[in-house]
Amino acid sequence: MLETQNLRAGYGHITVLWDLSLSFREGALTAIVGPNGAGKTTLLRALTGLIPHGGEIRLGGKRLAGKTWDLAGQGIVMVPEGRLVFRDMSVEENLCLGAYPKRCRGDLSSGLDRVYGLFPRLRERRGQAAGSLSGGEAQMLAMGRGLMSQPKILLIDEPSLGLAPVIVNEVFDIIARLKEAGTTILLVEQNTRVALSVADDVHLLRGGQVRLSEPAAQVDLDRLHDLYFAREAQSA
Ligand SMILES: Nc1ncnc2c1ncn2[C@@H]1O[C@H](COP(=O)(O)OP(=O)(O)O)[C@@H](O)[C@H]1O
Ligand SMILES: [Mg+2]
């Protein structure tokens, strides 16, 4: 289980996350929802060691203090916002980069087979430059690259961003399948409807603080949206 205790993080003198204590259940899909600027991406950056943090991050009870590359070796992998694929490299070259952690390098062809099994479209386009993919395909490539190292915990930042609704559904079908296959997933989304369609647990983040933590099945969408848009004062 991944958990944070009084996690603080930000940029320089600016604190963005204020004492977040969260836990992410093993094998479950936890959705972090919240408006733009809430600190969702900052949370993922802190969890993957891209920015320093105060407080504690624990994995399986052990405190994490490592850098990004160590964390990938421990099975925590981030699929970044905006996909960030290498446009001039082929689909397959991008996937191979995802096998960078030492323990995965020997296992390249079985990793590729596994990812191509999940994303047949990537197999068809394996030799094509990543920059020529559609938005949905690029999202699949970014997720496939993350899966190349067989992560225990996959952090996915805004996978629906800029995608047509039908493509969003396709991407979320695959996220649901990854969860069924046993991957622990942390999903950051502004689109609460699609997030709730796959989530087990939901945390609403606003202004760098947790405003609501609930099992997805108990979430009242109207109440969630009131908190999301900070309408609770008006509606009281
Ligand atoms: N690299 C950065 N340097 C300084 N401030 C940043 C940086 N990235 C994000 N921020 C600020 O941190 C806050 C939270 O941003 P972010 O975590 O990206 O929010 P979200 O992902 O929820 O939209 C925002 O006020 C944003 O301007
Ligand atoms: Mg973000």
Automatic annotation (TrEMBL):
It comes from the Bacteria. Keywords: Amino-acid transport, ATP-binding, Nucleotide-binding, Transport. GO terms for biological process: L-amino acid transport. CDD domains: ABC_TM1139_LivF_branched. Gene3D superfamilies: P-loop containing nucleotide triphosphate hydrolases (3.40.50.300). GO terms for molecular function: ATP binding; ATP hydrolysis activity; branched-chain amino acid transmembrane transporter activity. Residues 2-232 form the ABC transporter domain. InterPro entries: AAA+_ATPase (IPR003593), ABC_transporter-like_ATP-bd (IPR003439), ABC_transporter-like_CS (IPR017871), BCAA_Transport_ATP-bd_LivF (IPR052156), P-loop_NTPase (IPR027417). It holds the Pfam family ABC_tran. Belongs to the ABC transporter superfamily. This is Branched-chain amino acid ABC transporter ATP-binding protein. The lineage of its organism: Bacteria, Pseudomonadati, Pseudomonadota, Alphaproteobacteria, Hyphomicrobiales.
